[in-house]
Amino acid sequence: MERTLVLVRHGQSEWNLKNLFTGWKDPGLTDVGVKEAHEAGRKLKAEGITFDRAFTSNLSRAQKTLDIILGELGQTDLKVVRDEALNERDYGDLSGLNKDEARVKWGEEQVHIWRRSYDIAPPGGESLRDTLARTLPYYVREILPEVMSGKRVIVTAHGNSLRALIMVLEGHTQDSIIAREVETGVPMIYTLGPDSRVVSHREP
Ligand SMILES: O=C(O)[C@@H](CO)OP(=O)(O)O
């Protein structure tokens, strides 16, 4: 049986372009972000992949990315499930601040720890561990059963909400997840085995 799960980070957002911490804020896609989403859809089409189930967050940049991908696949009628469990990590007090200005204020190392560490939360926000504590139960309850029943599933979400899921899917440690970056608009195609573990992963 085929068990396919595709994860896609949204295309470039207005705040990615402005280099601002975004988190639960809701900026739209830039023109580049729209192009990246079309490109992701075209890549999936070239792979011959269509979907039976689609999940996204409660934030418009991920929803719009999914809409564009489904448009490229001729699947605009596919029902989309939106849930804030897939939202970006809440960046708390950093939300809306410029990342370079934050580095000047708090230092390169501290900002990197807030952005990429597993268990250090930015002030008022969520660590990757906190993010995992909401994304993983949602994945196990809502997404994984669909994949395991042979449905082809796409999830469009965010850099850190996807890093949380990727940590489990790719078996990262708390140390190795620090270096795992997720590019905007690049489909990550996972095939799962009968024990729900990943047997293959590619990025066309
Ligand atoms: O600002 C954010 O919400 C995220 C994703 O764009 O940024 P970072 O890569 O710094 O975690």
TrEMBL record:
EC category: isomerase
Known catalytic reactions: (2R)-2-phosphoglycerate = (2R)-3-phosphoglycerate
Pathway(s) of this molecule: Carbohydrate degradation; glycolysis; pyruvate from D-glyceraldehyde 3-phosphate: step 3/5
Signal peptide (from-to): none
Keywords: Gluconeogenesis, Glycolysis, Isomerase
Cross-referenced Gene3D superfamilies: Phosphoglycerate mutase-like (3.40.50.1240)
Xref: SUPFAM superfamilies: Phosphoglycerate mutase-like
Binding residue positions for substrate: 9-16, 22-23, 61, 88-91, 99, 115-116, 159-160
EC number: 5.4.2.11
GO terms, biological process: gluconeogenesis; glycolytic process
A Pfam family this chain is assigned to: His_Phos_1
Catalytic-site annotation from UniProt: H10, E88
Role description: Catalyzes the interconversion of 2-phosphoglycerate and 3-phosphoglycerate.
Name of the protein in question: 2,3-bisphosphoglycerate-dependent phosphoglycerate mutase
